[in-house]
Amino acid sequence: MKPVTKKWIFMKASSILLIPLMFWFILNLVGIYDQNYQNLTSFITSQPSKFLFCLFIVVSYFFSALSISEVFEDYIHNEKIKNAANKALYFSAIIIPFVTILAIFNLNT
Amino acid sequence: MKDNPLSPHIQIYTWHVSSLVSISHRITGIINILAITLICIWFSTLLLGDDNYDSINFFMKTFFGKFLVIGIIWSFCFQGLSEIRHLIMDYGYGFEINTSKLTGLIVIFGSFLLTIIIYILGKSLV
Prior knowledge:
The structure holds 2 protein chains of 2 kinds. By secondary structure, chain A is mostly helical. Chain A has a single domain, classed as Fumarate reductase/succinate dehydrogenase, transmembrane subunit (3 helical TM bundles of succinate and fumarate reductases, Up-down Bundle), CATH 1.20.1300.10. Chain A has 4 helices and no strands. Chain B has one domain: Fumarate reductase/succinate dehydrogenase, transmembrane subunit (3 helical TM bundles of succinate and fumarate reductases, Up-down Bundle), CATH 1.20.1300.10. In chain B, helix 3 (63-90) crosses helix 4. The longest helix of chain B is centred in the last third of the chain and has 29 residues, at 97-125.
């Protein structure tokens, strides 16, 4: 299988997983955005929201990294800049969800 | 890789519903990942404790906070509906000009309608 085919399959599989997670999150976002510290902490540290939110950010960054790299492929002419942009993109797609999940698991209710 | 053709710049095309949905799909994709990054920072700041959360809570309760959240919800709705349209097209359906125009309009108007529905539903769940 060609790498581009593999990338396309990963993109489609992650988008199928992301759509229901995204709708779950925005439905809950409406309910929590103006809540106080206790309510927000209790939402994010209780199950299933803790698991679903962690899964949501991991899948979101995975999907976004793949799709934004397509935008780089289409519009960035310079190979060196494109490679640097892709590396920065993949690095942030790993580090941001990792740090957030770590923060959530260290929260006390 | 070096000789790959680059996409022509968007200004040279005549605007159609499909092109509007396509470019908006990319723009909302970038907005969404920036929004998710903001949400990650927001949730991570909870580690700083109750006292430090007051200013964020104050902002979220203002008009701008509400506007930001509704904007994020619309962007997610647009991306979600547009992604469903893409998945249907991946199965080989919806390429006829009229169907493509119709599904594009469903994505545009549906995203606004869905934003209202999700906001009302979300508030009723609290």
